[in-house]
Amino acid sequence: MKLKYMPLLLVPFYGFTQAAEIYNKDSNKLDFYGRLVARHQFSDTVSADGDKTYARIGFKGLTTINDTLQGFGQWEYQISGNVAEGQEGNHSRTRLAFAGLKHASLGSLDYGRNYGVIYDVESFTDILPVFGADTYTRPDTFMQLRAGGVLTWRGYDFFGLVEGLNLAIQYQGKNEDSSRAVRNQNGDGVGASLVWQSDYGLSLGTAYAGSNRTDAQQQKSGNNAGRAESLNAGIKYDTGKFLIGSVYAETRNMIWAGGSDWTLGDAGYGKWGAVTDRTRNIEVAAHYQFDNGFRPSVAYLQSRMDYNGISGNIVKYADISIRYFFNKNFSAHADWKINLLDDDSRVIKATGISTDNVLAAGMIYQF
Is residue 54 part of a domain? Predict the structure, then answer.
């Protein structure tokens, strides 16, 4: 079987709709992409208020090895623009860095820092300009979002048997060195996703990931369970102009709630932080792209946790946003996060999670 043309990126490529081709010769192709986000946020919560400007750049490369085999790679980096000169180091980060091979009939295999398979389905609701898709997915939380040391195999059209049915299997090696924050550690884990995409805009998907928790996580997180797990299922309908997506997810022994350190307090009276025993998460988001460039969006997100006999919401908000595209490279946006958490709930009083609204406004240049 001869290898058909393969897009430069084999996993879903979110946030960028175009890239600048900087090299294409002798079966080698290199695209450069980026975005500059000039954004200001307004909130009574200090950490959510103020300048949030940043720049993001990356490249995607592809080389044809023979009629059935191609090599590929991607790197992406983000630089904060809201800190003093010389202090960017703690605020800038590598988002993606992976390389791999794709075979015409055997699928693709890549390794490095990449998206976890849980995000294959979570992406159904990640459509808002600023907020959204944040009830249970966080970077470097096992295989929920972007993660390090993941080996990913992807097969397309279910081995040629079912068009549009894509299977992914992922392994993550342990990351437990002392320089890594305890909440961002992980033991060995495996995950898988199954997503069906129809020709008329309907997508259905489910994904599972399970990992061992490190000794430090069991000893210092308020939760001594030996394994962390997550499972989600979602549906999306996308006509090109209208999009609506919905995801339901559950996690066990995985999601951090509360204070910024690992010091536990009295859950009834004092501030505390711990890894939840369980979370149940709902996300629904929709937008419509008008021909004149306007794209209004609405969303609802909720995460309810259980920990040590306590239950309550740790995420609950509605979102209203609008984005205007001047052209494919430049847009402006306003995104209003309407917090629906109860100030008087036991969980909020104990954890200190913010219940403030946030308004974000800005402009984006991308290529």
Answer: no
Q: How many CB atoms lie within 10 A of CB 161?
A: 7
Beta carbons within 8 Å of 27's beta carbon, 6+ residues apart:
63, 64
The answer to whether position 308 is within a domain reads yes
CA angle 169, 171, 175 (to 5 degrees): 155
Residue with tokens 């999601």: 255
- Domain enclosing residue 264, as ranges: 105-366
Q: What token pair was written down for 254?
A: 């995985």
String of b and e for 172-195 (b: at least 16 CB within 10 Å)? beebbeeeeebbbbbbebebbbbb
- Residue 1's nearest CA partner among 193, 132, 156 is 156
> DSSP letter at 180?
S
Residue 20, domain member (yes or no): no
Give SS3 for 122.
helix
User: What is the CATH classification number for the domain harbouring 229?
Assistant: 2.40.160.10
Strand positions, DSSP E, the chain:
20-25, 28-42, 50-51, 54-66, 69-80, 93-103, 107-115, 146-155, 165-172, 189-197, 202-212, 227-238, 242-252, 256-258, 273-275, 278-288, 294-307, 310-325, 330-339, 358-366
Strands 242-252 and 256-258: unpaired
CA–CA–CA angle 180, 347, 273 (5° rounding): 20
- Would you say residue 64 lies in a domain? no
Q: Name residue 97's amino acid.
A: A
pLDDT tens-digit profile, the chain (367 residues) = 555 444 434 444 334 456 788 888 888 999 999 999 999 999 999 999 999 999 999 999 999 999 999 999 999 999 999 988 877 667 899 999 999 999 998 999 999 999 999 999 999 999 999 999 999 999 999 999 999 999 999 999 988 889 999 999 999 999 998 788 888 999 999 999 999 999 999 999 999 999 999 998 898 888 889 999 999 999 999 999 999 999 999 999 999 887 544 343 443 334 557 889 999 999 999 999 999 999 999 999 999 999 888 899 999 999 999 999 999 999 999 999 999 999 988 888 888 899 999 999 999 999 9
pTM (predicted TM-score): 0.91
